[in-house]
């Protein structure tokens, strides 16, 4: 039997809330997720389901009025496990960038418009590693070349506003890779780009992931993107992972009615021209009003009155290894 790959990130019952004047938004509401060494995990779900807040919470990068109110985020280090949520500031800074790095959904959250690309990347290297300025500079140019930026020496001296969207995304990836992370979290890395550039960035991520052996958490609302890159998939709805497992298993035999609906909403290769796409019916409920019982029940085609609107579905494992679903239809197979 092949030994399962080592887990490097373990998220348990993560909860992040936004306390606003009109009420509390439970943006992340009990996420469980594991990432193993060297694998690609896609996190998918409709807009607003908590993908970005979950990823930022994993690095303790949530700004007010957001607050991480519970859970654990354990990262494997050389000396054992560190819980990002309770560790001291020094430990958290040593994890960010060097073990877990992130490419943010809004490019300018991690880039300063006031400094050249080269200075920003070199700064990130100097912060984490005992190298000279000249060494950091040389590494920067090498990294820019590695992410496919032409004339990297010259580009290192340019400012973010001088670059196209695709080039800027490459530069952000270079910055995230600057300290050789074991896990890269890429939050919608292709959404703002045209189709051709999207394909190039996905190719780049795939080849970097293979060359370096780092794990990749790819956050996307695009199931096609997930299908191209991921080994495993986690489907999020209203702040929780409702189904996860090997990508091929989940896409071939989805169990959760939400996963089924999402998959039906994607155009299939070879579909007949008249075949109509069916979007997931209904709307994501307003963030302050979380439905009782199963959070998906107001939209679910398999809703069971008296059960789904009352009971919160626990995770049910199987049928394949590493697979789980949160839906009362599967209660009977609970491990
Ligand atoms: N700064 C904030 N203040 C208040 N609410 C917030 C804030 N940031 C996020 N939220 C809320 O948290 C929930 C989750 O947001 P998040 O950005 O994680 O969604 P997402 O899945 O990344 O969506 P998208 O696909 O659009 O990027 C949403 O209901 C959102 O309105
Ligand atoms: S628990 Fe009920 S409402 Fe929720 S997904 Fe399953 S069948 Fe649908
Ligand atoms: Mg997002």
TrEMBL record:
Q: Which residues form the ABC transporter domain?
A: 9-263
Q: Output the PROSITE patterns linked to this UniProt entry.
A: ABC_TRANSPORTER_1, ABC_TRANSPORTER_2
Record localization? Cell membrane
Assigned keywords, A-Z: ATP-binding, Cell inner membrane, Cell membrane, Membrane, Nucleotide-binding, Translocase, Transport
Molecular function terms, GO-annotated: ATP binding
**What SMART domains does the database record attribute to this sequence?**
AAA
Topology class, membrane: Peripheral membrane protein
Q: Does the keyword Disulfide bond apply?
A: no
InterPro entries, per database record: AAA+_ATPase (IPR003593), ABC_Ni/Peptide_Import (IPR050388), ABC_transporter-like_ATP-bd (IPR003439), ABC_transporter-like_CS (IPR017871), Oligopep_ABC_C (IPR013563), P-loop_NTPase (IPR027417)
For this protein, the record's NCBIfam families field holds:
oligo_HPY
The family annotation for this protein states:
Belongs to the ABC transporter superfamily.
Q: What is this protein called?
A: ABC transporter ATP-binding protein
């Amino acid at each position: 039997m092949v030994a399962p790959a080592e887990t490097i990130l373990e998220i348990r019952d993560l909860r992040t809330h936004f306390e606003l004047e009109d009420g509390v938004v439970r943006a992340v509401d009990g996420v469980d997720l594991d990432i193993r060494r060297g694998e690609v995990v896609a996190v998918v779900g409709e807009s607003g389901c908590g993908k970005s807040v979950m990823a930022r919470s994993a690095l303790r990068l949530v700004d007010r009025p957001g607050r991480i109110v519970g859970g654990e985020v354990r990262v494997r280090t050389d000396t054992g496990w560190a819980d990002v949520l309770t560790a001291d500031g020094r430990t958290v800074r040593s994890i960010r960038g060097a073990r877990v790095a992130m490419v943010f959904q809004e490019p300018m959250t991690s880039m300063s418009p006031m400094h050249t690309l080269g200075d920003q990347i070199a700064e990130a290297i100097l912060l984490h590693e005992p190298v000279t300025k000249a060494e950091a500079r040389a590494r920067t140019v090498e990294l820019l070349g590695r992410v496919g930026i032409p004339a990297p020496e010259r580009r290192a001296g340019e400012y973010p506003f001088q670059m196209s969207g695709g080039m800027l995304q490459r530069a952000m990836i270079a910055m995230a890779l600057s300290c050789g992370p074991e896990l890269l979290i890429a939050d919608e890395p292709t959404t703002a780009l045209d189709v051709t550039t999207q394909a190039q960035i996905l190719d780049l991520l795939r080849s970097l992931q293979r060359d370096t052996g780092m794990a990749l958490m790819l956050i996307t609302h695009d199931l096609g993107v997930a299908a191209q890159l991921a080994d495993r998939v986690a489907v999020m709805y209203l702040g929780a992972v409702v189904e996860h497992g090997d990508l091929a298993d989940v896409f071939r035999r989805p169990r959760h009615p939400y996963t089924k609906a999402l998959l039906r909403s994607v155009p299939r290769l070879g579909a007949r021209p008249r075949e109509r796409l069916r979007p997931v019916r209904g709307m994501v409920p307003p963030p302050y009003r979380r439905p009782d019982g199963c959070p998906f029940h107001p939209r679910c085609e398999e809703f069971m009155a008296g059960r789904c609107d009352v009971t919160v579905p626990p995770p049910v494992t199987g049928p394949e290894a590493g697979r789980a679903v949160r839906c009362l239809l599967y209660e009977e197979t609970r491990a």
